[in-house]
Amino acid sequence: MAGKIRAQLLKGTTTLLVLTVLRDGELYGYEIAQRIREKSGGAFIPSEGALYPALHALEADGALGASWRESDRGPRRRYYKITTSGVRMLEEHAQEWASFSLAMGQAVGSGER
Amino acid sequence: MIVLLLWVGGFGALAFFAVKLVRRSERRLGTGPSDYYTTIAPRPDADGLISAYLAGVAGQLVLPAADVAEVRMELIDHLTDSISSLEAEGMDHETAVREALGRLGPAAELGRQLRAAHQSTRRLLAGAGGGVFSAAGGFVLGYVGGVGLAFVLLIIGALCFGLLTLVGIPTPNFNADQNATPNSLMAAATLLVAAFVATRYAVRTSAGLSRRAPRSVAGFWAAASALVFGWLAIFGSHGQQSWPGVIAFLFVPVVAVAAAFVRIERPMPHVGRWSLILAIGGVGVLGLSLVLLLGVTVSGGGSNNDSPSPLVTSGPPDYHFGIVAPPAPDAWDPQGSIFGGGMRSDASGGQLYSTVTDPQAAVPMSTALAYWHDLRFEAWHSLPDDPTQGFGLDTKYSSPFAVLPAEIHPTWLQAVFHFERMRDAGFYEVVLTGVGPDGKRYMLDECGGGSTSFNGSVWDWITAPQ
């Protein structure tokens, strides 16, 4: 039950999570999923099926750049890098999320009282 | 001169940037740098599950080949990492494969989402705009290439006909319609090449920019090109026409549709800067050579007139007016009435034929025509007024190819023929005839003649009265 609720809450936050982990440097798809998991202490496990469409959509919007490069382990991989436009988008999403989570916290908190 | 330079510069720049745009767009269409990945198989595949999954994703993509290859390889990378990680946690390979695929979700859904991510509205608009620009530049480029091709075909044709003439095989006489057949064929060939290149450029550019498979946008461009170039071929292109040229023009929309579909996945041959300069220069040199060649031929042709011809006889030549009608008896020509035919072009480009009574005699038209009714101007096919081919009316014909009633004015009669809108008018002679008191038709006057070729659009040709 808790997993289902978390998955519902996670919907729509994939963009914010992806941009957040890419702010620290270039990563490829699988690494992005792992990094999100690590950064959230295992609390967020993004749907892998939603991750790639989100990455490609962000690239199409110009928020991310992508390039094929050799990796340490095996063949070339597709690395994603946040762009200037992506940084602006991240700031907007982060602000929106902060005000949303504050409002949600207040609403849920007042319901408990 | 400045206007000419601006035109050439403008069209040259359009073609140049269109070539650049196509090249840039085509980077997404070919397999390009991702060739390497399409050849790599994933790790040992449990019952072909991974291959089936990837095929399921690819089936929904409808993206350019390069994008499909990249998506495929990215998913292979992801699955490889995911399976390795799961195996490290203690899963057997088959279970790990199933679990990794399960985490990605249904293949069709993933494919649809990836396709939606690639094919944004912004890219669609860029594809549409880029396609139109590229089509315009491709048309200019194709037109230049088409002119070059037409000149090459003309030279080859001239050489072939020259050889046939040398060995005694009769060849068509293009002078009969003032070279309308080669001219209309050249115009059609030019438009065919231009329409082909423009449509292909449009499909390749719009597919690359909008991130769609060329086949998925081919239908739109086929319809648009067939309409635009079909209209241009049938209604918009005016000039000399002949049946071979008209038939070639009618193939323009067909070629436009074929250009959008036939082997559209293959890239266009890239035209380099020097190739473009060479092509334009080549067309110029060929054109100049042709002009010089024709000039020499025309001036050389004059000397042929000096040579004696078997058809040239002493005394006045026979113009064969007998095939029109018997000459009008003098008895029915009132004293003092003298007809004298003449011709000139009117404002609409028609040939105006008139015949007048002698103004000195001051015989009113009503008196001059006292014995005559049903007066009409008749246009007959004639010989080319050339000593080698004969004079006067062409006796192969027993009736006129155009007839107009004479408009009666106070001291003259007239009619306007639009030979430039009649198919196969060629060489002609116009005469005035009328019905006499005995009910028979007689020839009253010879008004003059000339030669012409059909001048108009393909539609004018098809709907021309005959």
End-to-end CA span of chain B: 43 Å
Major β-sheet of chain A, in short? 3 strands, antiparallel
The most extensive interface, with participating residues per chain, is:
A-B, 20 and 30 residues
Structural domain tally of chain B: 3
What pattern of helices and strands is seen along the backbone of chain A? HHEHHEEH
- Identify the CATH homologous superfamily of chain A: Winged helix-like DNA-binding domain superfamily/Winged helix DNA-binding domain
SSE class of chain A: alpha+beta
How many β-strand stretches of chain A?
3
Annotated CATH architecture of chain A: Orthogonal Bundle
Instruction: Enumerate how many helices of chain A there are, as a single number.
Output: 5
**What is the helix fraction of residues of chain A, given as a range?**
55-70%
User: How does the helix and strand content of chain B classify structurally?
Assistant: alpha+beta
Radius of gyration of chain B: 35 Å
Secondary structure topology:
The complex is a heterodimer of chains A (113) and B (466).
Chain A: H1 2-10, H2 14-22, E1 27-28, H3 29-39, H4 48-60, E2 64-70, E3 76-82, H5 84-112
Antiparallel strand pairs in A: 1-3, 2-3
Chain B: H1 2-26, H2 35-38, H3 49-61, H4 65-88, H5 93-104, H6 107-118, H7 121-166, H8 180-210, H9 214-236, E1 239-240, H10 243-250, H11 252-261, H12 273-304, E2 340-345, E3 351-356, H13 365-368, E4 373-381, E5 402-405, E6 407-408, E7 412-417, E8 426-435, E9 441-452, E10 455-456, H14 458-462
Antiparallel strand pairs in B: 1-10, 2-3, 3-7, 4-5, 4-8, 6-7, 8-9
Helix pairs in contact in B: 1-7, 1-8, 3-4, 3-6, 4-5, 7-8, 7-12, 8-9, 8-10, 8-11, 9-11
